[in-house]
Amino acid sequence: MNRPNKPKNYPGLDNDMNGGMTTVGKAIRDAWLFDLLPESETCEDWTHTRIDVLYQQVNAEWDKYGSMVSLLPEELQARHKRIYEEAIAKAKTRGWDPENIADDID
Is residue 64 in some structural domain? Predict the structure, then answer.
């Protein structure tokens, strides 16, 4: 009997391509921003279904602010800045080039 390949689960933010600068990585960092996940959660081995649920939760939070960082309360703006500055610095040490956005598609 030929079994179909099992879909790959998400490798986790620390193992994601482009140093985690991907669509899934953004969703995870935004989940941290909105306290949907602790900042220690990298979502390693999560199924695509579980990631999709996280996307929905994150989008619902962003909808409250018109999907704009500038409309976040000051505390969340500061947290967003910290989370993303740390992520960008870490990704650059792993070889991510922000000028090469074509590779950021996952």
Answer: yes
